[in-house]
Structure formats: structure tokens, C-alpha cells
Amino acid sequence: xxxxxxxxxxxxxxxxxxxxxxxxxxxxxxxxxxxxxxxxxxxxxxxxxxxxxxxxxxxxxxxxxxxxxxxxxxxxxxxxxxxxxxxxxxxxxxxxxxxxxxxxxxxxxxxxxxxxxxxxxxxxxxxxxxxxxxxxxxxxxxxxxxxxxxxxxxxxxxxxxxxxxxxxxxxxxxxxxxxxxxxxxxxxxxxxxxxxxxxxxxxxxxxxxxxxxxxxxxxxxxxxxxxxxxxxxxxxxxxxxxxxxxxxxxxxxxxxxxxxxxxxxxxxxxxxxxxxxxxxxxxxxxxxxxxxxxxxxxxxxxxxxxxxxxxxxxxxxxxxxxxxxxxxxxxxxxxxxxxxxxxxxxxxxxxxxxxxxxxxxxxxxxxxxxxxxxxxxxxxxxxxxxxxxxxxxxxxxxxxxxxxxxxxxxxxxxxxxxxxxxxxxxxxxxxxxxxxxxxxxxxxxxxxxxxxxxxxxxxxxxxxxxxxxxxxxxxxxxxxxxxxxxxxxxxxxxxxxxxxxxxxxx
Length: 506
Known about the structure:
This protein is an alpha/beta fold.
């Protein structure tokens, strides 16, 4: 069982609220849910939509074709009518309020009205008006979809939880003992500010919005050198502005964590859409030579785990760590088993003398060639120590048929569509997901790839992971086996399955 629901309309009409409300209820009712957002860079108007996919089996992505279309305006039906399956259900009553349509949707799916009532109470705003409209829609509609038996089991609280990537990053930072988070608003990194700001009192950290990304990075350095566990956040354009400060952390040995949430570039690009074009800048930003750690989570749970690991490396080796996310991961919601266990790490305070110049043992600036050479060599030794330490962690994951001659290689949020595609009929492949971009797991990765038919999946046009793979291992993925999407949209399960199957070898 796998159903896709598209809820669309103008910004301000409430497609996000409807999708999130439905998603929360379906998770409580025992199903797995995934949904993503597509929106224009406007406050009101434009065309915005959410696609929500649910199943009685784990689900991590959406499809191109949809089963139910809820149109809050006429334009939504016009834009998406080509995606309707045969027998699809359309909900588009003219001039009806969004909560009336929500009532219809819940009745069509056979969800008890009490669940919608509870969600509207949580929203609080205009509850009496909303519940009245929702009841009208619910009572005036017939159930049309008979969901499978498992759906009837209401889960105990905490059995599963509903998280997006931003919430995962926030959880991971709190686990690591975050003291201060600095940022300047920039989609898609902005949402983590809200997540962390809401929990400042509960977990004893501070969220500060400054005037620009240069100020953010330098304030982050200032806090970090006092011993505060500090993270700064931005998207690609803001990270460009932070690159000089990034170099400062490298020479001064400042433990600072950078959150880089990708979107299409160059410059403003397509500000509210999806891309994976910043792998190279995460690896190479800053001038001079210094070690860093770059991690790339693929879902909300990995976002939590790898953020904590990024703090560990930053604090242990006094280096910059970079968490490489993207719009699709940051804003999409995943169903995850279990419940977040937020255990705050010990907050340590250590003071020292910091310098942007090469320095001697006392921390004073020096131009002595012997000391300069020794400092450079010490940074190289540190880089090698980081490589060895990283081997203690899960640097990549393997899914699917481990003995297959076909190997899919990818990173970041493409994970979801690939995992779902692997469940397709006749799919014979294993999937290697790269978690650590730097240090790259070259030593162990070759055994998963040697003698195999390699297939690359990336949300960019220059196969940046493919370039990195060739640089570090010597494996070159043929042009015909590179599945690249760079129109600002994420991969979809049904379309990707077709593309992968075209490249499989028996």
C-alpha cells in the first residue's frame, strides 16, 4: 500500500498546515509518512504545494503520480492534472475554506474526526471557526479509500516521531551541548533558528541573529574561543562570506561547527528549491591548507547523529566541522521509529591564546621559517589523526543486495528516493550512501565498488561526488551511468526507479 496526496494553493492559503496535520495523524494511526514542500520565493500568492506519501511500510520519498489532489485554488488543478492516476480523487470545492476541505480529506481516508479535532486544538488559532468548517466537510463526504488493517492500530506515544532535517540538526546540536547558535536568515537554513530558539530555556543555549554572515562567522569564533560550544548556520551564498573566517578557525585551531544548507546557485539561484551543488565548496572553502570534517546526512535521524559527531570532531581536534545539508532534507518530514533522546553532553570551558598568524609556543605571532614549517606539519599530522579517528564511525552505509554487481552511489537527501526505488520489482542493486565527505572513506570503500557496475545519483550537473570518488579511489563512473538532476527539484521514486533500471547489468 502506497498513497500520494498533493495539497496545493497560494502562499497564505494553508497547504503546509493541512499537509502537516494529515501527516501527524497518519503517523499516530500506525502508518509511515514522508512529505516535502515546494514553494515560490513569495510571502503571499504564487503556487505552493506539498506532496505527502504514506504507507504501511517505511517510506522515504514521493512519486510523480498522485492518488489524491486537494486544490485550494484553480491553478493547482491546472498545474498538476497531468500527474493524476486513473481513478484519482480530486478535492477542489470552489470558495470553500481550507478546513472544510481538510474535513473532506479526512473522511475520504476514513480517519476518525476526533483526530482532526485534536490537531485543530493544538493549532488554537480560530479553533471554533475551523472545527465548524471541518465538520461540515467531514459530514458531507463519503469514505472512498479502505486502508489496510494495520492502519487501525493507534500507536503509543513515542513509538514513532515525525521530524524534518532541521529538527534533526537541532536535536544533534543540543545532544552535543550547544551553547550558542549564530545565524542570519537564509533559506533553507533559516528554519533551524526557530527550532533552536523555541528550546533556549529548556536546554540552556542562546540563539542570536546578526546583521550578516560575516558577523555571524566572526561572532561564532569569538564565542568558541571562550570555550562555548558554538554553531553557525547559512546557505551557499552566506557560506561564501564566511570563508575567510573559516580559514581563521583553521590556523587558530578554533572548534566551530558550520551548518551549510544547500540550495541552487550561483548567486541567488532559485532561492527556495533543491540542489547539491556545494560539496566542492564545503571541501575547499578558505585559503591555505588546514584540516576539516565534512559530514552529509541523508535523513532526519542521520542529521541528528552526524551533527553530534561534527561537534565531537570539532571539539576533539580544535577544527572547523561542516554539516552539509540541503533544502529537501532540511524541510521534508520523515517518520522515524523511537523517540529522540536528548542527553546534553558536558559543557567544558577552556581558555587559550589565539592568533590569525603563525604562532610560537607562547601563542605570539612569528615568521620564523622553522616554526612555520613545524606548524604546517602539525596540521598535516592532525589531518591524519582525524582520518584514523573517523574510522571508528560509520562513514558510509550499504543497502539492498550486498552481492549485486550493480552499485548505486549517492549522498545526502537523494537517499530517500533511492531506498524506495530499491523496492521496485526486478531491482537488483546495492546502494552505497556516503556519510563522510571529508575525511573520505577511501580505504574501505574500494571493496564495495571494485569490479561493479557503478551508478551515480546526484542533484547537480557536474557529479561532484563522482569527482571526489575518482580523486580518492580512482573509480570513474561512466557518463551513461550518471543520473543527475539539476532543475531545482528532488528525485522522485517512480522516475528514479526507471532511470536506475536502464543502467542495471545482469
